[in-house]
Structure formats: structure tokens, C-alpha cells
Amino acid sequence: MAKKVTPKTATKPKVAKAKAAPASPKGKTFTLEETLSQLKSLGNASVRAQNAKGGAWGAGAGDNQFGVKRGDIRKLADKIKTNHELALSLWKTGNVDAQQLATLLIDVKLLSSAELEQMVKSISFTWVADWLHSYVVKEHADKETLRKKWLTSKDRWTARSGWQLTAGRVAKSPDGLDLEALLGRIEQEMATAMPEVQWTMNACLAEIGIHFPKLRKRAIAIGDELGLYRDYPCSKGCTSPFAPIWINEMVKRQG
Asked: Compositional bias (Low complexity) spans (predicted)?
């Protein structure tokens, strides 16, 4: 689910090595039908099964998918290049592979904040949410206005993105943020939030604990009390998304 505001362990299970996208004539203009056909030809049953599983981070994919490896999607995007109209058409299909490809083709400057919000609300799969965030949302000129709006949203996907944007601000540009208030909201709301929202609220909690020593003890205490991801399975050499472990490990690495 592109770099996320999650620890290394928080990434979804890896899939097989990507293969080359079908060759296309140089300078070719891709149509929606041709692009979908290429995506379909790259489909993989094991990827479809993996996509459908979901996890602690949120929803898995439904039936509207081909099961294309992420590396193959990137290779196809490299062939097509930026194509805003095609990207919007791909997004409207609701196919998760097409939507992931769309995030790599969109011209963010041509996307209004209203269009972006509608795209976020239409998400059905966490990988799509994370790609849209990484390649479109956090690059949008109105991201701060949307961040403030989405932090109070009842929609799981806009709320997820709002907390994801906030976690990014905590880590990189925290001036003007009320960190105490954010901790208060996390303490009161995270336990009952939707899984998709919990994931990025937890990231925000961890970022506060990592970057602000005066608030570290409280952030760790909140994470410990809530216990979210305490038993999350971790691969060897990876860091747990359980906030107390995550915070302490990142602080240790800072020296």
C-alpha cells in the first residue's frame, strides 16, 4: 500500500517478480480499451487471491480486479506516460488494477479538489488508497485544506487520507499543529475507528512519539493502553506497527 507513513512491517505481503508489459508501438496513444486489455493480459491468479485477503490495514479487493503485479503496473505506466484523460477513464472503471495505474498517469495540476475528494471517497481497496495518496493526494495544491476537512470526515477513506496527511505533517512540517489535541483524539477515537482509519491514526501517533520527546511518554502510553497491533506478525528484521515498539525502535535508530 510508494513510501507510506507506516513501518516496514506494515507493508502488505510481497508478490512475485514483475514481468514486462506487452510491447507497444513507439509514440502510440493508448485508448481505455487497449489499456484494460493489456492489464488483463498481465493478470495473475495468485495476486488476485492475495489482493482479496485484506488485513489489519483494511479492506481487500473485490472481484473487479485482474490481479496485476505492482511492478507490471509501473512498467505499463512508464510506457504510457502522463495521460490525464485516460487516467480519469481508468479510475471510473472501478477496477483496482486500472485505478492503481491511473494514479501514475494523472496530471495532479489538472485535478480539482472536488474531483480528488470524489476519487478518494470512491476507493474500495487499501492498496489503491495508498497509491492515490502517495502519487496524487500529497502532491495536490489543496492538500492542507483537504487534510483539515477530512480529519472530521465520517467517510473511512477520506478520514484515512486525512490522518495520513497529518502524520506526514507531524514528521516533516509540524508548525501550527496542535499535537496535544491530536493525541487526545487518537486516545478517544482510534479504538472504535474503522480499520482503514486506525492504520493511519496509529501512524500519526507513532510519528508524534518519534519526533517529539516531550510527548513521547504519552504517545507510548496511549499505544500501550489501546494495544492496537500488539500481536501483529512481523518478518525478521522488520519493525512492529505496535506504537510503543515502533516509537522506541525509531528513536533508537536516531541515536
From this structure: 7-27
Q: Work out the angle at residue 124's Cα, subtended by the Cα atoms of residues 120 and 128, and round it to the nearest 5 degrees.
A: 65
Q: How far is CA 139 from CA 60, 135, 201, 217, in A?
A: 25, 7, 20, 33
Q: Is the pLDDT of residue 36 over 60?
A: yes
Q: Mean pLDDT across the stretch 67-83?
A: 98
Give the predicted TM-score (pTM) of the model: 0.87
H/E stretch holding 87 reads: helix 84-92
Close Cβ partners of 172 (under 8 Å, ≥ 6 residues apart): none
| Residue 208 burial by Cβ neighbours in a 10 Å radius (0-12, 13-18, 19+) | buried
Q: How many helices (H) and strands (E) does the chain have?
A: 13, 0
User: Helices 195-211 and 213-226 meet at what angle, rounded to 10?
Assistant: 150
3-state DSSP call for residue 46? helix
Low-confidence winner among 13-17, 47-51, 99-103, 207-211 (lowest mean pLDDT): 13-17
Chain-centroid distance of CA 65 in Å reads: 18
Q: Which of 96, 73, 86 is nearest to 18 (CA)?
A: 73
pLDDT confidence tier of residue 56, bands split at 50, 70 and 90: confident
